[in-house]
Amino acid sequence: MPTIEEIRAKLIEMICAVQRDSGEAEPILTPKSCPLKDVKGFDSPLGVVVTGLVAIGLKIEIPFELNVFVDDKKRRLTIEESTDLICSMLKKRSGK
């Protein structure tokens, strides 16, 4: 299972890669950044792409229905919160 630091780093890396590939400027991101608020042009469809790339890059499975960029109340999450959400999901799956 990847560490919290590896998950956070991969999220930032993939958000930046998707932005570059979309022709947007590469954002400067921190754990407190909220991609859906702070990153120009970043929206839910790009969030799905980033989630898939993170899963592939970390060799983990993230359910398609899990939106790692919003919570169950539709509140937009920071990178730190998205990282915590992924970690929590992985821990539940592994029974730890």
Provide structural commentary.
By secondary structure, this protein is mainly α. It has one domain (4-94): Non-ribosomal Peptide Synthetase Peptidyl Carrier Protein, Chain A (Orthogonal Bundle), CATH 1.10.1200. It contains four helices and no strands. It has helices spanning 4-21, 35-38, 44-58, 79-94. It starts with a helix and ends with a helix.
- Uncertain ranges: none
- Number of DSSP helical runs: 4
Mean of residue pLDDT values = 94
CA-CA gap between termini = 11 Å
**Tally of distinct domains:** 1
Architecture (CATH level 2) name: Orthogonal Bundle
Q: Largest beta sheet, briefly? A: none
Strand fraction equals under 5%
Helix-strand category: mainly alpha
Q: In percent, how helical is the residue content?
A: 55-70%
Radius of gyration of CA atoms, rounded to a whole number: 12 Å
Give the helices and strands as they follow along the chain.
HHHH
CATH class: Mainly Alpha
Strand and helix map with partners:
Blueprint: H1 4-21, H2 35-38, H3 44-58, H4 79-94
Helix pairs in contact: 1-3, 1-4
In short:
By secondary structure, the protein is mostly helical.
Which features characterize this protein?
96 residues, mainly alpha, Non-ribosomal Peptide Synthetase Peptidyl Carrier Protein, Chain A, 4 helices, 0% strand, globular
